[in-house]
Design a protein that fits this description.
By secondary structure, the protein is an all-alpha fold. Helices cover 75% and strands 1% of the residues.
Length: 443
């Protein structure tokens, strides 16, 4: 279960991750409290979350392209120092009682730094462990993230009451130094280098072509968007299902415990496969339907526990497959696209679920969202289970792209194992001697 921890480099990286995640959750709790206290509006809290998510949606692919091209250690060190400075500035702004617009501006700036930080951290983290231990490391990362969430939330409540919210931001500023120390002290000769982008595969366009040419990736990202937007926006549905603050606190604790158990379950598995992802997605969708039907807060909490565990297994498996099943030179861009998909799902799903809860009721919203995520999961599973020629034909119709036929190679049993995301220009010459660009679609 803890195979990745045998390596010295990963132990340092994991400890730094735990410290940093704990500090980040402390700042998030303090930030939400400051915004709510200053404005008295829950919508303003949502606006604060949106300000931090917008950069990821808009700039994610560009940040991923930089991570694939530049030394990730330098990116991480620069971004971590910037994070520390912004957290310290936030403490000063709140302590001095500056306008809430200044808080929003710093939140946006932190999101802007995070969009460049994320792909670099993911790419560097993949070099800290060997390829065979990457899935276990991702799963343990989920456990550490859940543990840091619990520690950060509980510590934030105590420190905010004793010292005030600015103290939370200062603690978070110091926590970034743990990542800086880990990056500087990790042994470079024990790293597992990843291939960098070649000169003809750099940039955002190359990354988007790689994703667009892979029907498998498009299906996984579409499934991830649906599951994240409708299946895991429990900040909204938990609040709607809670009769009071005590119940909301109970449900939040149950959800956090479930995420830890889910991370341990993922870490215990030898392999994290797409089949596992689809099975767990079906199970959590069915449980979401059940969660809208069971009576009482306690019944909802009991169903919420395995849902939270399943959500972590899904996220861990998705991240693992994206990293292991794609070219190393595209790793940063695909991680950035995955983060952008998650951010977009949250930005779209949270307001939609909130609107549905007000219109048709919280229980009915859970049932409807569960049915929709189940339908999407079944659709993706049916496409992936179809014969190769049917999958390719479906991708051609959906994407409306001309199909590049590769004689003999398409029928070779090992043809699909070679990453060939983008086809070369071919076909009849258009007026002006321009060739039609046709992409080979892989599913």
């Amino acid at each position: 279960m803890f195979r990745a921890l045998r390596g010295r480099n990963y132990r340092r990286w994991a400890f730094a991750d735990l410290v940093s995640v704990t500090g980040s959750w402390m700042q998030l709790i303090g930030l939400n409290w400051v915004v709510l206290q200053s404005t008295g509006s829950a919508a303003s809290v949502g606006l604060s979350v949106l300000m931090g998510a917008v950069p990821s949606v808009l700039l994610g692919p560009w940040a991923g392209a930089l991570a694939d091209r530049l030394p990730v250690r330098r990116i991480i060190l620069v971004c971590q120092v910037l994070h520390a400075v912004l957290a310290a500035l936030l403490a000063v702004v709140v302590w001095r009682g500056a306008p809430i617009t200044a808080v929003f501006a710093l939140t946006f700036a932190a999101g802007l730094v995070a969009v460049f930080d994320g792909p670099a951290l993911g790419r560097f983290g993949a070099q800290v462990v060997s390829r065979e231990h990457l899935g276990n490391a991702v799963a343990l990362g989920s456990v550490l993230s859940s543990t840091g969430r619990i520690l950060g939330m509980s510590s934030a409540a105590v420190l905010a009451a004793v010292l005030g919210p600015p103290a939370l931001f200062l603690v978070n500023a110091v926590s970034f130094l743990a990542v800086v120390a880990a990056v500087l002290t990790i042994r470079r000769d024990e790293l597992h280098p990843l291939e960098r982008s070649s000169s003809d595969r750099v940039g955002v366009v190359a990354g988007l072509r790689y994703v667009g040419a892979s029907g498998r990736l498009l299906l996984l990202f579409a499934l991830g968007f649906t599951l994240s937007g409708l299946g895991r926006n429990y900040q909204v549905t938990m609040a709607a299902m809670s009769p009071d603050a005590t119940a909301y606190g109970l449900l939040s604790t149950v959800f956090a415990i479930g995420t830890v158990l889910g991370g341990l379950a993922a870490a215990a598995r030898e392999a994290l496969t797409v089949r596992l992802l689809l099975v767990v997605a079906c199970a959590t969708s069915l449980l979401q339907v059940v969660s809208g039907l069971v009576p009482g807060t306690l019944g909802f909490a009991l169903v919420l526990l395995p849902i939270a565990g399943g959500a972590v297994v899904i996220d861990t498996t998705m991240s693992t497959r994206i990293q292991l099943d794609t070219a190393d030179r595209m790793r940063g861009r695909l991680l950035a696209v995955n983060s952008a998909v998650g951010a977009a799902a949250g930005a779209v799903g949270a307001p939609l679920l909130g609107w549905l809860c007000e219109r048709i009721g919280a229980s009915e919203t859970l049932v409807l969202a569960g049915v929709l995520t189940l339908a999407m999961t079944v659709f993706v599973a049916s496409v992936l289970a179809a014969p190769p020629h049917r999958r390719t034909a479906l991708a051609q119709r959906v994407l409306r792209r001309p199909l590049r036929r590769v004689p003999h190679a398409a029928h070779h049993p090992h043809a699909g194992h070679h990453p060939a995301p983008v086809g070369r220009p071919h076909g009849p010459v258009r007026p002006g001697n321009r060739r039609r660009r046709q992409t080979r679609i892989r599913v």
